[in-house]
Structure formats: structure tokens, C-alpha cells
Amino acid sequence: MNTTAATERPVRTGDALVSVRNVTMIYGGGTVALEDANLDIARGEFVSLIGPSGCGKTTLLRLLADLIEPSSGSISIGGKSPTEARRDRSYGYVFQAPTLMEWRTVMANVMLPLEVMGFAREERQKRAEAMLALVGLDKFADKYPWQLSGGMQQRVSIARALSFDPQLLYMDEPFGALDEITRENLNLELLRLWRETGKTVIFVTHSIPEAVFLSTRIVVMTPRPGKIETVIPVDLPQPRDFETRETPRFFEIATEVREALRKGHGYDVEV
Ligand code: ADP
Ligand code: MG
Ligand 1 atom closest to Cα of 29? Predict the structure, then answer.
């Protein structure tokens, strides 16, 4: 597979759900966290952002989430500005740490955004139950976060992010703190969830195998200044399973990603 061809593939703005145009982000101290980023993401894609620490992955997610504003360039989400998209609840956000409230049950944690948004009690209950079933935790609704493993806690935070049915799911290294076996299981579960819900996912990771396994495309980023180095399509067939990781094509794509990272001197990435 030729990475250059992927980068040069014509951009079809018409059917893009997320469109990033010439976006540069310079923080107060003068750090160029992101330089002239261009990216289009179609509805239903699973796009991973990969690169070493400090290459602007979180910055790009924060820009898409309207948590910060770009220094220059523009972002469109379903034809709206990030601010409008945030007000319309277009995205859910999953952080690296589960950030659950310890004094609330699993169920009450998933219902929290719905409470803030003013959903009626019955609707909150119905949605939270459905989301917990979706992540396979319906039997744990009455437990408290400290009674769950790290992987289960992260599933609760995914259920919470999906509770208000956003079309986009932003995930910032959600499984980075988990052991490899738990992570591989959650990867499989996330793919099932993605297929069943039809959400568009933008996923940040340090791990090459994780990116290859999950993604329809991988955005390879490089630091100082943060840049999109290349975009690599992942043509592994769906649905993917544990055996996908053992196919020759999986290793070919992983090598392609590794070489793109090396080109940008992104060494501190899991291989
Ligand atoms: P990544 O998520 O890829 O590790 P970040 O987007 O967090 O990278 O950071 C990109 C660069 O911007 C880094 O050099 C980081 O130190 C800097 N940076 C991130 N957030 C801020 C901030 N709030 N103020 C100043 N510099 C920041
Ligand atoms: Mg980050």
C-alpha cells in the first residue's frame, strides 16, 4: 500500500461529517501544538490519531469539542461550527481516566449528563439502562465505581458519553491505562458497539496495533510542531476479531504506520 496515494486522495468535502481546514493552534506560551492541519472524516468512520506525546492529538480533539479555539483555520461538524455542534450535543467525550463520581452508582453516573441536559426522569432511566446493556454492564447498574475493575469503569464512561445519543464519539487514549489483555477485549467490544450504533469515532492512541485493529483510517501525527504526517487507510475486512491481528495484512499496515511515524521521528510509540 502506498501512503503517498492516501495523502493525495482527493478530499470530498460534500459528504464529510467533520472537516478540518488549515487549522493551526498556538498556545499562549507560543507552542505550536498543531500546524496547518487538514482532515475530512466521513459519517460512520472510525479514525485514529496516532503519534508520540506532544504531537497535538489531544489539542485536535479539544478543538473538535469546542474546548479551545483555533488560532487560524476552520472546523465544520455536520456543517456547523464546533460551538453549535457542542450545543446540539453532537459529540460524547471519553477521557483517559474514567472520571466517574465515586458516590454515585453506575446507573446514576450514566444518567448524569441527561440530568444536566434536563431529560425527564423516565427517559433518563430508559436511556441509561439501554446504554449499560450496550456496554454489557446492565447487571452492574447498582454498583459503585470502586466495585468495578478499570476496564469496567471505562465501559461506564463510554455508556455515559453515549447516553444522549451523539453522532460523534471522541475518545482520548481511553484504554491507555489498562493491561493489554483487557485492552484487547475492550477493543473488540468497541468495534461491536461502533457497528451496532453507526457512530463516527475519533480515537486517540499511542498503540500501533490498537490503531490498526480499530480504524478505518489512521491519521499519523508528528511533533514539534504538531502536524498530520499522513493518513493511512485500513482495508482489513469487517467484522474484525482476534484472528484479524494475526493476518499478514494486519502486519503490513502496522509496518506502514511504524514507517510513517519514523519518518516524523515519532519514536516513543508502542509497537
Ligand atoms: P498529545 O495529546 O499528542 O500528547 P497535546 O495536544 O496535549 O499533545 O500537546 C501538544 C503540544 O502543546 C505539547 O507541546 C504541549 O506541551 C502543548 N500544550 C498542550 N496544552 C497546552 C496548554 N494548555 N498550554 C500550553 N501548551 C500546551
Ligand atoms: Mg494527549
Answer: 25
Mean pLDDT, each 10-residue run in order, the chain (271 residues): 42 75 96 97 97 95 97 97 96 93 97 95 96 94 96 95 96 93 93 95 96 98 94 97 96 97 70 55
| CB-count exposure of residue 124 (10 Å: 0-12, 13-18, 19+) | buried
| Burial of 137 from C-beta contacts in 10 A (0-12 / 13-18 / 19+) | buried
For the CA of 60, the closest atom of ligand 1 is 6
Look at ligand 1, atom 14, and give the residue with the nearest C-alpha.
Answer: 54
Domain residues of the chain, as ranges?
Answer: 3-90+166-263, 99-165
Task: State which amino acid sits at residue 268.
Answer: D
To test the ligand 1 pocket, which listed residue (24, 48, 50, 58) has its Cβ within 8 A of the most ligand atoms? 58
Cα 59 to ligand 1 centre (Å):
6
Domain 3-90+166-263 has CATH 3.40.50.300: yes
